Amino acid sequence: MKTIVVSEICSACMTNTDAVVFDSTVRQSLISNEIVKLDFHGISGITTSFLNSSFGSWIEDFGFEKLKGKVILTNYTPFVAKSIKQYLDESKNLQK
Asked: Domains of the chain (ranges plus CATH)?
């Protein structure tokens, strides 16, 4: 399992540019079929734009089912958790 501290990769989870750097780091682990633990310590907010260019890209490229159990979230604020959960729920419904 590889732990990635999000705040060490991008100082904020707000823009597509933030997400591109984050995506390339996480993607390498997903391609290697590693389990990735994403540590959101120090991240208080997250935008749909960021989620589209990271989580959305992974769902599109790897599929929602393959990501289940491969990406683990930790040390997140209630707002970050709610935003990611809502994004994933909406993405899952779109794939049906």
From this structure: 2-95 (3.30.750)
pLDDT tens-place string over residues 30-52: 999 999 999 999 999 999 999 99
pTM: predicted TM-score of the whole model, two decimal places? 0.89
Closest to 10 in 3D by CA, of 76, 20, 70, 52: 20
CA dihedral 46, 52, 56, 57 (to 10 degrees): -120
How is residue 6 written in tokens? 């999000």
Cα–Cα distance for residue pair 19/6, rounded to 1 Å: 10
Q: How far apart are CA 51 and CA 79, in angstroms?
A: 13
Three-state SS string over the chain comes to: CEEEEHHHHCCCECCHHHHHHHHHHHHHHHHCCCCEEEECCCCCCECHHHHHHCHHHHHHHHCHHHHCCCEEEECCCHHHHHHHHHHHHHHHHHHC
